[in-house]
Every structure is written in C-alpha cells, then in structure tokens.
Amino acid sequence: MTKPWASLLIAAILIAIVGGGYVFWNTDLRWRPKTITKHQDEIVKILESGGWVSPGLTGPKLYMVGFRACPDCLRFETEEFPGLHTAGVDTRVIMVARPDKNGVAKSTPVERSTVAELGFNRSWTLFQAWNAVPVDAWTAPGIAPADGDTARMAVVESQRKLVEDLRPLLKDNGIKFAYPTLIWWTKDGQMRGCACEDRDTYRFVRSDLGAAAPHG
C-alpha cells in the first residue's frame, strides 16, 4: 500500500510538471512561428505577384499582408520595421482593401484607391505617407479613384484573392491567416510564417532575421 505522504509527493510532482509545461507553452511555444514545408513554391508565387512595396533593401525578405486600419499591423510596423531595416531586411508590404462582409463595408473608397495605386506604382514613399496620417484623415491626394475604374478595381480584387488563395495553403502548415500575416526566410533557408497579431511573436521574427530588439 502506498503511504499517504508518497501519494501526496507524486501528486505534487505531477502538478509541477503539468504547471511547468503550461507555463512554457503559454510564454514560449504558443507564440513560435511555424516552419512552412508545404506548398512553398505556390506561396512564393502568390506573394511575388502581390503588388508589394518595400524600401528596396538587399537583405532577407519579410512579407507582411495587412490593411491600413489594422492596429496589430500598425504596431508591428511602428515597433519592428526600424530594427528590421537596420538589419537590412526588405519589408515587403502587401496592403489589402478588405471586401464587404454581410453587407457591412470593410474598406473605404480612398483605401481602395490607395491600394490600387500601390499596386500600380509600387511606391514605398506613398505607403509611408499613408501611414503617417490618421486613417480617417487620409484623402488619397492626387490618386485616381478606384471605384468605377475597371483596371484599378482589378488590382484591388487581386489583393483580396491573394488572401483567399493563401488561407488554405497556410492552414496546411498550421498557420491560421490573420492580420498581419508574416512570411520570411531564416539564414539557413527555412521558410517561416505566423499570424503575428500579438507582440509576443515579435522576438521570434527578430531572432530569425538577425534584428535587434527595439529600445525603450
């Protein structure tokens, strides 16, 4: 017969193991990006054709799919882009004007116009100017309207299709698409990705790409 103190000791050990495992999962494992091993060529083809804009750096590539009013996208850009650029990372941003959902508009006319312009002219300067003002204050100055323009709306729709094409491919790699979704390559050539909505994911992106943590 097992002595009572021995049973209590075993129970305490099991609780410690389970508790420690949960802490490790909650603080580390759950935030780690996934290594993309399936559909690599197809994913790359989709990203490359996505009308991305970048600062034109020559280091590792990091693709980010986002939309202008996305707070998690803006936080990543604000906090992480400076360090990534210092490390030479070419941040390739694909902006999407989300389609309406259940009769509710998810984008604005000026957003659609700006997304179309970015797709046509691939201007990092325009992307920076757009990000520099509050969402509601942006008027898309000097940019032709997309609504009613077949060619420009085709660009808007192609960005929306990009998201829908990526969803199942990323899901097969354990990534549930969200904004921002990031895809990059490590120094040893592994393709990695995450739906990096939470700040806890950022340290893994920095580590893979050799960027320093932001100060402050």
Short account of what is shown:
With 216 residues, the chain is α+β, with helices and mostly antiparallel strands.
Descriptive labels:
five-stranded mixed β-sheet, single chain, globular, 216 residues, alpha+beta, Glutaredoxin, 46% helix
Question: What topology, given as strand order, has the largest sheet?
Answer: 1-5-4-2-3
Number of helices: 7
| CATH domain fold name | Glutaredoxin
Secondary structure: number of strands: 5
Query: Which structural class should the secondary elements be placed in?
Result: alpha+beta
What is the domain total for the residues? 1
Identify low-pLDDT runs.
Answer: 20-29
The CATH class name reads Alpha Beta
* Residue fraction in strands: 5-15%
The arrangement of helices and strands along the chain is: HEHEHEHHHEEH
Architecture in CATH? 3-Layer(aba) Sandwich
Helical content class: 40-55%
